[in-house]
Write a structure and sequence with these properties.
- By secondary structure, this protein is α/β, with parallel strands linked by helices.
- The protein folds into two domains: 126 residues, OmpA-like domain (60s Ribosomal Protein L30, Chain: A), CATH 3.30.1330.60; 89 residues, no CATH class.
- The protein is 52% helix and 12% strand.
- It has eight helices and six strands; from the N terminus they run ααβαβαββααβααβ.
- It is extended, with a radius of gyration of 24 Å.
């Protein structure tokens, strides 16, 4: 039991660090950076899919009107024989399609905006700078959706809830809280030692934890690609299909599967 509590504490700490430890001045949605000349492959596929999941959940929780969401696509300014305006439009369209797959209605989106080649985030002087310009922006009512405002909404909601609670119970006896915490700690200690003594004479049936790594997922996805003789180019679907198959495989062996980015 104590091991479980420690594991939960560590996981919550890590989630809190990655959630609130982000740079508040970061302008754009993270991870939605595209590979060169690509309109359907991200630099970091796993992180991009997670970011799209988060954005879709946030937008579905809002009461939006048709055409209220606008997605702008951008490209790096390089002479590579690819039409940058079409490339930037296709990037915006790809993100719109991905958000629709996650449950957002198609009528909520305005037409994708093709911004073509830019040097807004990188100077296009080298590959490191150019990669920053291969991206999309997601706007709601002409306001860029960023990680900080997503959190700001939650924080304001919690503040309003706490304020209402304080108004309804302004005379709450706060001194009783330390006593309650002490009582909870004592009860938890009693339960822990009691369960520990029982476990000494019996075998445990607890699930072991298995960390599903990026390398394992990548190898499995490549195997799926090889099975089709390299005919399919849908690497994103291969990636998610690999996660589902590997998770089911390890769970069937009695493991509790944790994906590596959840740590």
């Amino acid at each position: 039991m104590m091991k479980k509590l420690c594991l939960v504490f560590v996981l919550v700490s890590l989630v809190g660090f990655f959630t609130f430890g982000k740079d508040s001045e970061q302008e754009e949605i993270d991870f939605l950076l595209f590979l060169p000349n690509s309109n359907n492959r991200f630099v970091n596929e796993v992180a991009a899919m997670v970011q799209l999941d988060n954005v879709a959940n946030y937008l579905m929780a809002k009461k939006l009107r048709p055409g209220q969401i606008s997605v702008h696509g951008y490209a790096a300014a390089v002479a590579n024989g690819v039409e940058p305006v079409n490339l930037s439009r296709n990037r915006a369209l790809y993100v719109i399609n991905e958000l629709q797959k996650r449950g957002l209605s198609g009528d909520l989106f305005a037409e994708p905006v093709a911004c073509g080649p830019v040097d807004l985030w990188g100077g296009n002087t080298d590959e490191g700078d150019r990669s920053l310009n291969r991206r999309v922006r997601i706007l709601v009512d002409d306001t860029v959706l960023t990680p900080a405002p997503l959190k700001a909404v939650d924080i304001r909601t919690e503040t309003r809830t706490e304020t209402a609670a304080e108004k309804t119970s302004s005379k709450f006896p706060w001194w009783i809280i330390p006593l309650l915490l002490l009582a909870i700690a004592l009860i938890a200690a009693i339960i822990f030692f009691a369960s520990a003594s029982r476990r000494r004479g019996t075998s445990t049936a607890e699930k072991k934890i298995y960390i599903l790594t990026e390398d394992e997922i990548r190898r499995h996805a490549y195997g799926l690609h090889r099975q089709r003789n390299g005919q399919s180019e849908d690497a994103v679907e291969d990636w998610h299909h690999s996660i589902r198959e590997l998770t089911a495989h390890h769970e069937a062996q009695g493991y509790q599967v944790i994906l590596y980015w959840e740590l």
